[in-house]
Design brief:
Blueprint (H helix, E strand, L loop, with lengths): L13 E3 L2 E3 L5 E3 L6 E2 L15 H12 L4 H13 L6 E5 L5 H9 L3 E6 L2 H8 L6 E4 L12 E7 L5 H7 E12 L5 H7 L20 E11 L2 H10 L2 H4 L2 H8 L4 E11 L1
Parallel strand pairs: 4-7, 5-6, 5-8, 6-7, 8-9
Antiparallel strand pairs: 1-2, 2-3, 9-11, 10-11
Helix pairs in contact: 1-7
The chain binds S-adenosylmethionine and zinc ion.
Length: 265
């Protein structure tokens, strides 16, 4: 995709054998998996690490089983409804690339994704699916102004200024947050007084959602492994005491509500 820019000087990056280079000579090598690290050299080494390999693998194993495919199908339908011939799409905080990969299979598009976690991006790039993946920070997205038709952004921090900058004038931002009943059964096991999510869109100053869609269903987790993988993907994993975690690990299967709130800007 020709909208990726140099994170040091902002000039366009061009492909040059196994690397990408800008006119000022800043050079970023392709890793053997095919991704580019566009953080290298611009931040202190080790200061930004993101999710580790275990988290990336458990996210991959869970999503590959199709548990969140009602959300995937909704995203595909929103994108197809735009009827753009070959839209430029960016998966912001792409994780291990499940959604960008599946959308690329179904929609004729130029797809890129980035995440701050090298482990996530490495797994995403291993899919060799024709999407371009890079390591980058949301607060400084190395993408040209007004170059993207559709940005999607699932369960990740929001950055209004950057999203507005990179989108074309008639571009679309799709952002997904947890709906009020998302994983409620899991929370009932973990906590004495589980709360419902507030479904509020991220706070913004200059852009407003045109539409809010709810995507809701039930999934049956058929093994301890899947229950654990889902739990690790949630913020609760870090907030729950070992004693409360044990309660969940006594289950071999679990029926859980999935409830997503899709905001279209
Ligand atoms: C909950 S995961 C969601 C991943 C993916 N969107 C999905 O739904 O499978 C949040 C992701 O945001 C990434 N992330 C967090 N802060 C970031 C930042 N400042 N810049 C880029 N990525 C970031 C994490 O590394 C993680 O992969
Ligand atoms: Zn440069």
């Amino acid at each position: 995709m020709n909208s990726i820019i140099c994170p040091v000087c902002g000039e366009e990056l061009r492909e040059e054998s196994r690397s990408m280079k800008c006119g000022k000579g800043h050079c970023f090598d392709r890793a053997k998996e095919g991704y580019i690290n566009l953080i290298a050299g611009t931040h202190k080494k080790g200061s930004l690490i993101g999710d580790n390999r275990d988290m990336a693998l458990s996210r991959r194993s869970f999503l590959e089983k199709g548990y969140f495919d009602i959300l995937l199908n909704e995203l595909i339908s929103i994108i197809k409804d735009k009827s753009l011939p070959c839209p430029h799409i960016l998966d912001i905080c792409c994780g291990e690339g499940y959604y960008s990969h599946k959308i690329k299979e179904k929609v004729n598009c130029e797809m890129c994704g980035f995440d701050i976690s090298k482990e996530m991006v490495r797994l995403a790039a291993k899919r060799k699916n024709g999407c371009e993946y890079f390591v980058a920070n949301l607060s400084r997205i190395p993408v040209r102004d007004k170059s993207i038709d559709i940005v999607f952004h699932l369960f990740a921090p929001f950055h209004e200024k950057e999203f507005s900058r990179i989108l074309k004038d008639k571009g679309t931002l799709i952002t997904v947050v947890a709906g009020e009943n998302h994983l409620f059964e899991l929370k009932e096991i973990l906590y004495d007084t589980p709360y419902k999510n507030d479904e509020m869109p991220p706070e913004t100053e200059n852009i407003t959602p045109k539409e809010k869609r709810k995507v809701t269903g039930k999934i049956h987790l058929s093994s301890k492994e899947d229950i654990d993988a889902l739990f690790r993907m949630t913020p609760y994993y870090y907030r729950t005491s070992d004693r409360d975690k044990e309660k969940l690990f006594s289950f071999n299967e679990l029926d859980v509500t999935v409830d997503f709130c899709v905001f279209i800007y």
